[in-house]
Amino acid sequence: MGAIGTLTLSAGVSADAVVGALAGYVEEDARVVVIEAAAEADLGAWPGERVRWLWRDYPLPVVFAFDGTLSGAEAAFALGCDIRVCGEGAALELDAAAMDDLTAARARTLLGLAAGDAIPARFPAGEALERGLVSRVGPVGSAGEVARGAAEAIAARGPIATRLAKEAVWRGLDQPLEQALRFETDLTLVLQATKDRAEGVRAFLEKRPPDFTGE
Question: For 86-96, how does the pLDDT look when each residue is reduced to its tens digit (9 = 90+)?
């Protein structure tokens, strides 16, 4: 399978099957996962517990790619991923009335809204980029290619560092800034004892690409 796991949300795929596939990538030592939403995808339901599991408990970085309009359970799924990219002409629709509390809280966090603030219903690609709902917008039909480019950059980094970086982000969201920075420093100290850290230093001094092993 390699360092990058891939998954397509196609017709007939169940939420349980997606969770199982994602768990398999962890067991196979993938470093990042790319998920593409097909036009006919229909997860059926993706409740807030799974949104929270994706961004908080799932250890690997997840890049979600979509072209066209994303709504319903697929939109909720995308909110739980770490990075979202789309093509020009795409849109993200958030039905606040259909969201449970955890999904709505995640949407407000990404949008920088306070608890109780109304969640806008539709975000065309450009506005989604401006508001932080997506990280990159490419030409029409290029979302998968853009996502794979981002995944390749992540996979080239030390896997322990990327996992701890993800943990630092989600833990820091609910902490005062000073406490969040202290936690980040603690994780940095953990990295100092890894073989990957030593490899990174050697590679820098030898002016070559590092060969991180996740140790």
Answer: 999 999 999 88
Cut 0.70: pTM above it: yes
Split into its structural domains, the chain has a count of 2
Q: What residue has token string 């360092």?
A: 3
Cβ contacts of residue 179 below 8 Å, gap of 6+? none
- Whether 159 shows a pLDDT value over 90: the answer reads no
Give the DSSP per-residue string, 167-207: HHHHHHTTS-HHHHHHHHHHHHHHHHTSHHHHHHHHHHHHT
- Same domain for 151 and 163: no
3-state secondary structure of 95: coil
Q: Is residue 87 part of a domain?
A: yes
CA gyration radius for the chain? 18
Residue 86 lies in a domain: yes
Q: 172 and 126 in one domain?
A: no
